[in-house]
Write a structure and sequence with these properties.
Blueprint lengths: L2 H13 L11 E6 L7 E6 L6 E2 H5 L12 E5 L3 E5 L3 H4 L6 E9 L15 E4 L14 E6 L7 E7 L17 E2 L3 E5 L6 E6 L3 H13 L13 E3 L7 E5 L5 E6 H8 L6 E3 L12 E6 L12 E6 L5 E5 L19
Parallel strand pairs: 1-5, 4-9, 10-14
Antiparallel strand pairs: 1-2, 3-4, 6-7, 6-8, 6-11, 8-9, 11-12, 13-16, 14-15, 17-18, 18-19
Length: 334
């Protein structure tokens, strides 16, 4: 970990940055977790949109939604907060994470007052909370952890007064406008790749990746027999823009992504086939996101017999870890 991140983490502790005494701001809060898929989980909201945390709006009695745990919708002027608080001695995450802008609407001008300039880049140490971020630009904002780049959170900012219950053009939440263009921060250019149309191949691929990674039901599962992969996305109308700034308005997001990526009706998955030449000994596979009933945190190591390609052992170390019954926690870099 570089000195900058360590210094920021220490400063955060010393000044109580983002501590429990920080004034509450209307909007949404993302909890930093160790949970597969929803590493940034939208947990609380008082957004005036009537949505806030998308998965809460989609939940059915006794059937929590796996869709949208890392996605929220807020009005312009509302805030986004990231925190590393909750169980296990004040945190559901056992290590420092970062929150960095990946995609944000191309800035025009930032008015004085409550609004935050993008891009955003900060560290969230265990037990701390970020200052509220109040994005000025309407459209799609995506954040990620640049230590663990599969950790995503997304926020769509809509105009003031637009709500789920709205039924006129000036009050309706839909179609959700992704913005004309977005900037990409520190990813494919330094410091910024600007003015990328939201209907471009690059942005569609990033949006597609977000909905695959943040919903474990969309992950590919290979079995001994062939099957199919049937990813689904929120079936809501959205507006995205082409290079000439002409809009594709009211397009169903689920239909758009499935059609663009050739997933309509599902895509075939071939059966998992063992190597034709037997090996010697064992192959240990880092099954980082696998859950185990004996422990709280995800992650195991799977020992596979290299001669017959059969699983021989699962290692989860449930009696080890930062806290009792944590066990292995997202093991990687093996």
């Amino acid at each position: 970990m570089n000195k900058r991140r360590i210094l920021l983490a220490v400063l955060g502790i010393l000044v109580g940055w983002g501590g429990a005494g920080m004034a509450h701001a209307t909007g949404v809060t993302f909890q930093v977790t160790d949970n597969p898929g929803s590493w940034f989980e939208c947990t609380t909201s008082d957004s005036k949109t009537g949505v806030g945390c998308v998965h809460n709006a989609l939940d059915k009695p006794g059937v929590p939604s796996t869709v949208g745990k890392s996605l929220s919708v807020i009005q312009r002027g509302e805030s986004i907060t990231f925190q590393s608080h909750a169980p296990h001695h004040g945190s559901t995450a056992n290590t420092i994470h970062t929150v960095v802008s990946l995609i944000y609407p191309t800035p025009k001008s930032i008015p004085s007052g409550i609004f935050s300039a993008m891009p955003f880049d900060t560290d969230i140490n265990v037990g701390t909370r970020s200052a509220p971020i109040t994005p000025n630009e309407l459209g799609l904002h995506v954040f990620f952890c640049d230590i663990h780049p599969y950790m995503f959170a997304a926020v769509i900012v809509v105009p003031e007064g637009h709500t789920l219950a709205g039924n006129t053009e000036s009050t309706s939440l839909f179609p959700l406008d992704l913005g004309e263009t977005v900037d990409l921060f520190k990813i494919v250019a330094e410091p910024v790749l600007p003015n990328v149309p939201t209907a471009s191949d690059l942005v569609l691929r990033l949006v597609h990746t977000f909905f695959i990674i943040t919903n474990p039901n969309n992950w590919q599962n290979y079995a001994l027999t062939s099957g199919s992969w049937n990813p689904t996305y929120p079936s809501v109308p959205v507006t995205a823009y082409f290079l000439n700034k002409s809009p594709a308005t009211g397009v169903d997001l689920n239909g758009l992504l499935q059609s663009y990526f050739g997933e309509t009706g599902g895509r075939p998955l071939a059966a998992a086939v063992p190597p034709s030449v037997p090996g010697v000994g064992q192959v240990w596979v880092d099954t980082q996101f696998e859950m185990m009933s004996d422990k709280n945190k995800p992650g195991t190591v799977t020992a596979v017999n290299a001669e017959n390609w059969k699983v021989e052992r699962k290692v989860g170390l449930p009696n080890h870890g930062t806290h009792e019954h944590d066990g292995m926690n997202n093991p990687h870099n093996m």
